[in-house]
Amino acid sequence: MSELVLPNDTNGLGNLMGGRLLHWMDVCAAISSQRHAGMVCVTASVDSVEFHEPILQSEIIVLESHINRAFRSSMEIEINVYAENPRSSVKRHCNRAFYTFVAVGEDGKPVPVPDLVTETQKERDRYEAAARRREFRLLLSGRMEPRDAVHVQDYLASFKA
């Protein structure tokens, strides 16, 4: 997905406002999740939003998203944002975030989503990392007990070895 940063999208310094970027990232994640699930999906959470570099007025932003993992009714979507200078065509990585979307049926209640098939090592690494991030989210929200966070425990154990 691409967008042009216009004056109305910027703050007093001529930089893209974070809220506008988060909106575009949410739309991009919604498209990816709905394509995977084949149904309406809604935002459940946003975390690990990283603002690395400002995006300037008149730059083109390119948002790339992919599903890292599908759980029962939810999916983790990673969005990477690049700013492209329209004169030089030079692109730079500026932002990243992880969104969780939930598929909902006509009654508005969560419904199962298709499994995600991983093919490359990079996809498998993202798949495993998504499980750890999900457990961290559940731990922080109090919806999971530490003893049940097996992916986090395995990850921490790898540092002791």
Note down, in words, how this protein is organized.
The chain is of the alpha+beta class and 161 residues long. The protein has 3 helices and 5 strands; from the N terminus they run βαββββαα. The chain folds into 2 domains: 113 residues, Thiol Ester Dehydrase, Chain A (Roll), CATH 3.10.129; 45 residues, no CATH class. The radius of gyration is 18 Å and the shape is globular.
The helix content is: 25-40%
CATH superfamily of the largest domain: Hotdog Thioesterase
What is the fold named in CATH at topology level of the largest domain?
Answer: Thiol Ester Dehydrase, Chain A
Query: What is the approximate shape?
Result: globular
Percentage of β-strand residues:
25-35%
Element-by-element helix/strand order: EHEEEEHH
Q: Give the strand order of the largest sheet, numbering strands 1, 2, ... along the chain.
A: 1-3-4-5-2
Helix-and-strand structural type: alpha+beta
Number of helices: 3
User: How many separate domains make up the residues?
Assistant: 2
CATH architecture of the largest domain: Roll
